[in-house]
Amino acid sequence: MKIAILSRNSNLYSTNRLKEAAAERGHDARVVDYLRCYMNITAHRPQIIYQGSELEGFDAVVPRIGASHTFYGTAVVRQFEMMKVFSVNGSQAISRSRDKLRSLQLLSQGGIGLPVTGFAHSTKDIEGLLETVGGAPVVVKLLEGTQGMGVVLAETKKAAESVIGAFRQLDANILVQEFIKEAKGADIRALVVGGRVVASMRRQGPPGEFRSNLHRGGSAEVIKLTPEERSTASRAAKITGLAVAGVDLLRSNHGPVVMEVNSSPGLEGIEQATNIDVAGKIIAYVEKNQPAAATKRPRRSST
């Protein structure tokens, strides 16, 4: 099977592991910088050109689309879909998960536990917004933020008003959420592949830091999920339409609550914490679900 891994950098851990896992299972995997692709969207024969040559003959794509390049990255994925190439995560599902507000609305509609969350446009409505989420302390988030950036804990009403006002001065879209104090700076990352949680870890923020992202100095350890947490993660991925997803949860006094569903979850932290071959499970999912591959699945290398 010929697989395209859509990534900006072939040296990134997750990209490299996916390429290795594909090779170990007998597949031809190529890393393609999706920002270097250009497209002919003519209906009768859609094309993708990369470094002067047409990309053709691919059986599947594994998108690793960065948050700051969602618009163009999903356009490339959509073009592959027009060419009848199987994509692990579809273009619509990636876009849906990247729109944090839309994603939370869909999760809420699907009965998924969430922190109490508010959203408003005008700074004139800050007081009402804070009351909606139960008052300070609150967490203020930029809708476009990633890896813990653009996330601020406002411990008092005055601090919350200042932060929200500053973000709105920049014309930034924000969410305000209740602060889950009982989580004690820790969250859970559940890695879902094909509707099943295949690996999970607990991430703990450093002292004095309420954000647990590994990019911000957090630590990780393997954790056993409760049946409710496992079900919540699987359902959250299904609601957003993602076959491969990193679902971030907090343990609250009223059960597990979902913070975010990530369409391009990093593999380094969770593989190292759990010693589970997550990349291999993603490639196995491709083998099982790509129509042509299902009839000619290769035997895994013994080396």
From TrEMBL:
GO terms for molecular function: ATP binding; metal ion binding; ribosomal S6-glutamic acid ligase activity. One of its GO terms (biological process) is SOS response. One of its GO terms (cellular component) is cytoplasm. This is Probable alpha-L-glutamate ligase. The keyword Ligase applies. It comes from Candidatus Neomicrothrix parvicella RN1. The gene is rimK. In the C-terminal section; belongs to the RimK family. It comes from the Bacteria. Keywords: ATP-binding, Ligase, Magnesium, Manganese, Metal-binding, Nucleotide-binding, Protein biosynthesis. Pfam families: RimK (PF08443), Rimk_N (PF18030). Gene3D superfamilies: 3.40.50.20, ATP-grasp fold, A domain (3.30.1490.20), ATP-grasp fold, B domain (3.30.470.20). Its cofactor is Mn(2+); Mg(2+). Residues 104-287 form the ATP-grasp domain. Coiled coil: none annotated.
